[in-house]
Amino acid sequence: MATDGPAALWRCGELYRRGFDTHHIFSVDEYYWEDRPAYYAALETVRREGEDLTGWLEYCAEGLRQTLERVWLRVQAFNLKSPEKLVLRPKQERLLQLLRDHHSMSPPEIWTALSVSRQGAMDLLRPLLAAGLVEKIGTKKTGRYALRHL
């Protein structure tokens, strides 16, 4: 097992301090699904070692470390510096990723990419605009949304 455990736990606390709620972006299940044979091997080790849970706990701790590292990298990509706590819904996170990748998007592009209505897109955008993560560029007719450069 890697010895980065304390640092990973610190990063988890740092996510919360910086205003990110990990309700939907923190799931260790992905780690288990990525390598099913390793998962079953870790379980089998418990039986083989006479119910000694050491190997299983090391496997689970490594999964937690890797998951927290992934979450940290995803959060770092958005570089939030708002003092307000912002709970991102999955579609809001996806919208931020789209804006990062496309640099800017028109409202119809957002509706299409996220499979939401016009009102649904505004419900996603409103808190991101208020938090200063996203800005509207242009007029009402020609407006586009982009990540605000912080």
List its traits.
two-stranded antiparallel sheet; 61% helix; mainly alpha; 150 residues; single chain
Please give a structural write-up:
By secondary structure, the protein is mainly alpha-helical. Helix content is 61%, strand content 5%. The chain is built from 7 helices and 2 strands. A hairpin with a 6-residue loop joins strand 1 and strand 2 (144-147). The model has no long low-confidence stretch (mean pLDDT 78).
SSE blueprint and pairings:
Layout: H1 5-17, H2 29-34, H3 36-48, H4 54-78, H5 90-102, H6 107-114, H7 118-130, E1 134-137, E2 144-147
Helix pairs in contact: 1-4, 3-4
Give a quick rundown of the structure.
The chain is mainly alpha-helical. It is 61% helix and 5% strand. Strand 1 and strand 2 form a beta hairpin.
What class, by secondary structure content? mainly alpha
Task: Work out the helicity level.
Answer: 55-70%
- Beta percentage is 5-15%
Main sheet record: 2 strands, antiparallel
Alpha-carbon distance between the two ends: 37 Å
Order of helices and strands: HHHHHHHEE
- Overall shape: it is elongated
Spatial arrangement of strands, main beta sheet = 1-2
- Rounded to an integer, what's the Rg over CA atoms? 20 Å
Extract low-pLDDT stretches. Answer: none
Number of strands: 2
Oligomer designation: single chain
Count of helical segments?
A: 7
Rounded average pLDDT: 78
